[in-house]
Amino acid sequence: MTEQSGQTPTLDNLSTESRVFAPADDFSAAANVGAAAYEQGTADREAFWAEQADRLSWDTRWERVLDWDDAPFAKWFVGGKLNVAANCVDRHVEAGLGDRVAIHWVGEPGDSRAITYADLLREVSKTANALTELGLEAGDRVAIQMPMIPEAIFSMLACARLGLVHSVVFGGFSSAALRSRIDDAQARLLITSDGQYRRGAPAPMKDNTDEATAHTPSIEHVLVVRRTGGEVKWTDGRDLWWHEVVDRQAETHEAQPFDAEHPLFILYTSGTTGNPKGILHTSGGYLTQASYTHHAVFDLKPETDVYWCTADIGWITGHSYIVYGPLSNGVTQVVYEGTPNTPHEGRHWEIIQEHKVSIYYTAPTLIRTFMKWGADIPARYDLSSLRVLGSVGEPINPEAWIWYRENVGANRTPIVDTWWQTETGAIMISPLPGVTHTKPGSAQRALPGISAKVVDDQGVEVGKGGGGYLVLDQPWPSMLRGIWGDNDRYRDTYWSRFADLGFYFAGDGAKYDADGDIWLLGRVDDVMNVSGHRISTTEVESALVSHPTVAEAAVVGASDPTTGQGIVAFVILRGSAKPDDSTVKTLRDHVATEIGPIAKPRQVLIVNELPKTRSGKIMRRLLRDVAENRAIGDTTTLADSAVMDLISTGLKSTT
Ligand code: WT7
């Protein structure tokens, strides 16, 4: 292992990656969490989490930290009572921090709003009073489909305050997707907006929710925020304007405590088959871990930091690391409504410069997009306020990690690569920025109080250098409590694979390196088997992206008569690179050199676009259809449905 900091190392890929970046001494000295936390978490896991739960305000203290008697159905902080919203808002105002800005909201067209904790308390109280007036009671479900506007956060917190269970549905989801989620949860209220700003123009939103609510008998009212002022259809008696119902409410509201296991929200996530699963999270354990991990992983100093997580509230990252984790810690944060290239490709850097953002948390897919746009763009802005960078959502290839560190972090800021899932509720595996010697592309180690293992088919832990399945072998406070309305599916999906051992099966492949650090290798359904060798699509993609001409790559295993599966790579070249006769051979050879001849792609196809879901995940299933010369399957969850046509036409014209 080579220790480096400061200098530019040579680019490399995941399989041979050996660079290590030590935290700076002054960063470590001032860090919120030091190395001792790992020992505390291992010595007495329950005592450790009880200490973290004490970072919150409880109305009634718990009697028992963990009840795992009815595994896999967990109860944390049994008998404890708290109000989640009061923990995120009221207690900061009571502590005299009412004037601190909670949210620097930045609208896409350039409008903005600074919301202090005192403002937030007023807005959440008014919203809670309005929802009470509409007859909603603790335990009722509320669907929310909204853009990234402050009212979305007020709505979530008002639900939490009243013990209502929110189900946020990403703004880009179709009416059919919204409808099935409303039906599954039997939501009584839908909160939405007339429209939203995307890519420089207002786009309708209520049209979509109208289509959904035409067929959802459980919905009694639709509460509509006016954002764009566009024309909307109106159903009298059902539809209500936010400004007419919420604005006139009393500005105070007394929060009631709820049981630690009171449901907080449902969030739907797609599985490998069937309908989306309604992942259920509850109150005390969820907030404890969301809050602690935000404090520990980002080293948040609420008095001085300005934090920005670029996720949408429609995803778990938005729930845990825009709303509940940060606000419970009294953060000052940026919330941005729009797209990263509106009105120009430097928008994020401009926002960081203007608000002096010190902690920036984003996704590898966006980092690779920034790479494609060029390093000269961030170079035009003052990014010196940044001190911690985060990554989430998929394995980050070392190439992108290094680019992020050099071009955004000035070769100085630690990068935390955070592994977790909708189901885990909060970060599980990640470096700690003041402790960990980070390695590009590795999430490295389970956080204090968390236990993760890499095991083989039989559930036996593999040794250093070995690969297998990622499992969580101990319950954790923010774990999902089930799938809404489907206990059997909950058991089957997560707990049946290693039933005798009681492990949670994450669905991800992983390996230990020679130091015992964990490297995530992508979903196990994306792992290929070529001539009996297990090769991760991520590993091949990483190798491809480490070639200077490649901007982005997606790899699938296509069935092959001789080798079981053959590797097919779809590659987007960098803007400046022009393909010629030797490009394909060069790239195939490059992979063979980087990983080994067994990983050499059978085919490399040069394309202009890759099919992605709205959350940025590459839809390999569709690429597999192309690679296997099949009719292309269901494309309804694609962010841009024209992409598959583009790829097919592009390929025809080049072959
Ligand atoms: C899946 C969960 C967690 C919030 C966003 C995604 C992949 C997530 C990482 C990471 C490697 C990662 C896994 C996981 N994933 N973060 N840092 N390194 N893989 O939530 O939609 O529930 O997806 O995302 O495959 O299982 P999600």
From TrEMBL:
Q: Give the organism the record lists.
A: Actinokineospora globicatena
Gene name, per UniProt, is acs
Amino acids binding Mg(2+): 545, 547, 550
Q: Which residues form the AMP-dependent synthetase/ligase domain?
A: 96-484
Q: Does the keyword Nucleotide-binding apply?
A: yes
Residues modified as N6-acetyllysine? 617
Names of required cofactors: Mg(2+)
The superkingdom listed in its UniProt entry is Bacteria
Entry GO MF terms: acetate-CoA ligase activity; AMP binding; ATP binding; metal ion binding
Keyword tRNA processing listed = no
Alphabetized, the UniProt keywords read: Acetylation, ATP-binding, Ligase, Magnesium, Metal-binding, Nucleotide-binding
Q: Which HAMAP family match?
A: Ac_CoA_synth
* PTM annotation, UniProt: Acetylated. Deacetylation by the SIR2-homolog deacetylase activates the enzyme.
What exactly does this protein do?
Catalyzes the conversion of acetate into acetyl-CoA (AcCoA), an essential intermediate at the junction of anabolic and catabolic pathways. AcsA undergoes a two-step reaction. In the first half reaction, AcsA combines acetate with ATP to form acetyl-adenylate (AcAMP) intermediate. In the second half reaction, it can then transfer the acetyl group from AcAMP to the sulfhydryl group of CoA, forming the product AcCoA.
Task: Outline the extent of the Acetyl-coenzyme A synthetase N-terminal domain.
Answer: 36-88
The EC designation for this entry is 6.2.1.1
Into which family does the record put it?
Answer: Belongs to the ATP-dependent AMP-binding enzyme family.
- Binding residues for ATP, per the UniProt record? 393-395, 417-422, 508, 523, 534
Q: Which reaction does it catalyse?
A: acetate + ATP + CoA = acetyl-CoA + AMP + diphosphate
- Record-given protein name: Acetyl-coenzyme A synthetase
The UniProt annotation places CoA binding at: 198-201, 317, 341, 531
Cellular component terms per the entry's GO annotation: cytosol
